[in-house]
Amino acid sequence: MEKVILKNEQTRWNPFHLLHRLYEWVLHWAETPYGIPALFILAFAESSFFPIPPDVLLIALAISIPARAFRYAFICSIGSVLGGMFGYVIGWQFYELIGKPIVEFYQGQAKFHEVELLYQQYGTWAVFIAGFTPIPYKIFTIASGVFQLQFVKFVLASVVSRSARFFLVSTFIWFFGPTIKGFIDKYFNLLVVLFTIALVGGFVVVKYLW
To answer: A single Pfam family, by name (predicted)?
Structure first.
């Protein structure tokens, strides 16, 4: 009996189990009348501290009503950019009090120096890549404030990258419907990385050709 209780306690406090429970909790909002507000709040929170990406709820809502897929992407983009601005303020004014504990929670201390080097080398491109790819965007939003990246450039990069990410998801849903869900779930990270490489490559080609 004691072994069963101990096993249940270990399962309850297993980080992967907790993350899965959190994932299911996010997903359940798609089945409620509060799906759209939840999507906005989730997108806002994920840009500064929350672990579950809004793509989870975005996909569920878009599949439920494919005709509204781009509307959901727009709401998700607005929430994410505003959340990124909040993350910037945390890094700029409240890093020791709020930002540092968040970074430590996600074990991102080692990445902070790498982020600083990326800013020194690529500036706004670092935010763009982080905003679109699976790289933890919250680390970059907080770091942008800490390293005082120009705020207007930060916002513009966030708008382009986050909108591109979420509208890409909605485009897949709009064209292919529910049948694409399994494919997106399985290959989402690879898709966004490939798309980012292609997009950045396109900018580089334009730069050198023109």
So the answer is: VTT_dom
